[in-house]
Amino acid sequence: MSDSTLNFLNVPRAEPAKAPVEARTASYAEIYGQFSPADAATQASRCLACGNPFCEWKCPVHNFIPNWLKLIEEGRLFEAAELSHRTNSLPEVCGRICPQDRLCEGACTLNDAFGAVSIGSIEKYITDEALKAGWRPDLSGVRPTGRHVAVVGAGPAGLACADVLVRHGVAATVFDRHPRIGGLLTFGIPPFKLDKDIVETRREILEGMGVRFELGRDIGRDLAFETLLDDYDAVFMATGAYRAVAGGLAGEQLPGVVPALTYLISNINHELGLGDPRDWISLQDRRVVVLGGGDTAMDCNRTAIRQRAASVTCTYRRAESELNGSRRDYRSSVEEGVSFLFNRQPVAILGRDRVEGVRLATTRLGTEVRRGRRTVEVVPGTEEDIEADAVIVAFGFEASPPPWCAERGIELHPNGLVKVSPALPFQTSHPKVFAGGDMVRGSDLVVTAVFEGRQAAQSMLTLFGVEASDAARA
Ligand SMILES: Cc1cc2nc3c(=O)[nH]c(=O)nc-3n(C[C@H](O)[C@H](O)[C@H](O)COP(=O)(O)OP(=O)(O)OC[C@H]3O[C@@H](n4cnc5c(N)ncnc54)[C@H](O)[C@@H]3O)c2cc1C
Ligand code: SF4
């Protein structure tokens, strides 16, 4: 081991500065700053360069993490950006919003005793700074293949697929019903986690690489799916998973009860000046109760705080240690003033003409195990009522397959997720149609959607007989 691999003994883990609570809750701006070049190099130098990098294995796109950390330590920014883009189509996004504590940083050898290398913040630094300094993906050696793919959905899966295709000379046209690209990156995740300009910059990069976007085009309504099958060599479907899980609670239909995504999108549209201003849901001065413990619930909590709600209470039916969402976003919610009620299950939403409160019951762990976790059960006789002027339901999302799947004989699982082939990854039962992201795996993460979009592109290259290049490893 050379001396520099022992830097972690002298250099503590650090993150870029986080805005103080008062400043951050007064706006929707991102709350984390950026490393300086010197700080990025110093933090990168903490990497042990383990022979078998667990971080790389745990990262869903298998980023070459130790290699780009070394390049940053040596100040070789453009080479780091080039390497980072070989495995990830949206590194600046993943660096910001991946749950690193469960993924790369959770697997870092230094994590337990010394604090993991700040992998996410360095990944974000690389692309942000390289783009600012003029770096752009180099496609000068790419030769057109004459093939053309239609991508339905401009979320992370669709964008990643298009990225890998154009790097191999396959033309990609991406259709989306929204007026902007990004899917949930734009119309879901709030700007204090991911600034919308970051997604717009990515659009410019992709357009510069030759990706065509047809936005404001709802496939099935504005253009028949059949037309895509006729006009393109293959179709990649990445339309997400949008059916909100209902709680089945009495009172869920009362005015003042809002589905999480409706609330978040209304506020994003308000901030971006899109949509009908009358659709904006403002919870200023309201006592807000958020039901759920995932990323979506945390985003609703923190949006309501920024809207100046009178109070925000988040209820979750499991313990704090079992929260689904990112720990970082949970910690930020607590710092920003959200109150949490753990081990509480809503049993009814109360009110006559509009919502007035929520009835909760205390829960405990049951004996059954489902999906690797013990179930929870209500403790009899523990009901309590809390007051609320607004209730946001954030119980997650189920599959919402577009109708053309059934019409074209594209097979689905009983829960509505699209079936894909193990033989040619992400090919559906229709040989010309591929699928990936939330519509295949269920509501998950940006980085897993990116991985599947890239893998699907790889399968299409195999189908077309195009040799995969090392410049975009999928
Ligand atoms: C509130 C919220 C917060 C989240 N926070 C995080 C986080 O912090 N970190 C993280 O990793 N993940 C997070 N996620 C999950 C992540 O956003 C998703 O897993 C990811 O965006 C899925 O990507 P996708 O490309 O499969 O689908 P989507 O991002 O949903 O994109 C699908 C796209 O398809 C388009 N579309 C659908 N039907 C049609 C049609 N008929 N015609 C044309 N276009 C169509 C939609 O308009 C949309 O743009 C969050 C999700 C939510 C809801
Ligand atoms: S993509 Fe996500 S998991 Fe992979 S290195 Fe980046 S932040 Fe970590």
Summarize the structure.
The protein has helices at residues 21-25, 37-44, 54-58, 65-73, 77-87, 91-97, 104-107, 119-132, 156-166, 196-208, 225-231, 260-272, 295-306, 327-336, 403-407, 438-441, 446-464, and strands spanning 148-152, 171-176, 212-215, 234-237, 243-244, 257-259, 287-291, 311-315, 339-341, 344-350, 357-370, 373-378, 384-387, 390-393, 397-398, 433-435. It is of the alpha/beta class.
Gyration radius, in Å: 23 Å
Helix content bin? 25-40%
Specify the biggest β-sheet.
5 strands, parallel
Output the strand order for the largest sheet. Answer: 3-2-1-4-16
The SS-based structural class is: alpha/beta
Ligands, deduplicated: flavin-adenine dinucleotide, iron/sulfur cluster
> What is the first-to-last residue Cα distance?
32 Å
Give a count of the beta strands, DSSP E runs of length 2 or more.
16
Return the domain count. Answer: 3
According to CATH, the fold-level topology of the largest domain is FAD/NAD(P)-binding domain
Number of helices: 17
Overall body shape: globular
Q: For this structure, what is the CATH homologous superfamily of the largest domain?
A: FAD/NAD(P)-binding domain
Strand content: 15-25%
Model regions low in confidence, pLDDT < 50 over at least 5 residues = none
User: What is the CATH top level name of the largest domain?
Assistant: Alpha Beta
The assigned CATH architecture of the largest domain is 3-Layer(bba) Sandwich
Average pLDDT rating: 95
